[in-house]
Design a protein that fits this description.
The protein has 227 residues and is α+β, with helices and mostly antiparallel strands. The protein contains seven helices and four strands, in the order H-H-H-H-H-H-E-E-E-E-H.
Length: 227
Amino acid sequence: MEEKDSISICDNFFERFLLQGKIISQIITFWWTYSDDDDILTRTTEDETTEDEQKKIRAAKILGQCFFPGFDTITSAISKPKLLYLFSADPKEYISQGYPDSYGNTDKDNQGRHVETLITIFGEERIQNGKYLSPIFTSTELGLDEENKNFPYYEFKIDNSGTKFGRLTDPEIVIGGGNSLLKYIYTIPIPPRHLSPSNPRHKDKYEEWIKDEEKMYPPSPHIPFTT
């Protein structure tokens, strides 16, 4: 699948920018909802947990590593999850190809792990037919497109200071490879979670937002938004 297929969902830059912000907000909300349930993975009897629950917890663990990679300097043959991998993953192509073996073992393959995480969050139906961008950001927007190296691109930063609103800076001029490039700093807010998903009402509110395809903004002022 070519990138233009995902862009056609939002021909207008502003609409695309808003949808990207909504998707990121839903990803953060998913992480909030399932990041405290690690104990589910240690249960042994079949009636204590389900495969769906386990997938959600594993996806939340991947997201936690993407948002907060830490300062681990240990060299590993298996690269750790990264925000850039998550934003460039293309689950729609993966699904359309019938879950190809080329993605390999999702525990070891970067693309596979991030693709599976997005499918767990948003589901196949929405990714294929709903209001979703696959990938969330194109290689040009991420500064990874060798053919469009002179195009403006985003650099992402996580803000955990407590603000619930993201921001996009005015473009900065970056000199690299003899070229002058424009870079936007895209700040993603991940404030402290005020509504605990252990409360069923709060969890329902989170899951309502994760599944939503119609509203542009979260149903609660406690849920962060990037645009």
